[in-house]
Amino acid sequence: MPEGGKIQVCAENMVIDANHFLPLQPGRYIKISIKDQGSGITKERLPRIFDPYFTTKQKGSGLRLATAYSIVDKHDGYIVAESELGVGSIFYIYLPASEKSSRGKRNPDKSLCRKG
Known about the structure:
This protein is mostly beta strands. It has 1 helix and 5 strands; from the N terminus they run ββαβββ. It is globular, with a radius of gyration of 16 Å.
C-alpha cells in the first residue's frame, strides 16, 4: 500500500461440508483473512492476479501472488480475493487443519484477529 493504510488479519476454525461452494474436500480448515485499505484491484484484473508474471506495478515481477497461490495449493488449500477499487482488498486462505495437538492450545471455537 504505497499510500499507507491498515491491514487486518484474522484466523478462524471452520468445517467445510460436502455442500459447501468452495472447491475443497470436506473437513476441518483454518480460514485466514487478510484485509487491506489499499487502492483495490479492478474487476478486469482480479481474475488474473494469481497468474505468474501478471503485475500492475512498474517494478513488480508478478510472482508474489503466484507463489502464494502455489504454496496454498500444494498444502491442499485454496486462496481467493475480493476487491473494490478505492476501498481495498481481502484475501481468504483456507488450509486444512492439523489433527496434531499443539502446545498452548487456544479455544478452537474462537477466532483470532489482529489489526495493524
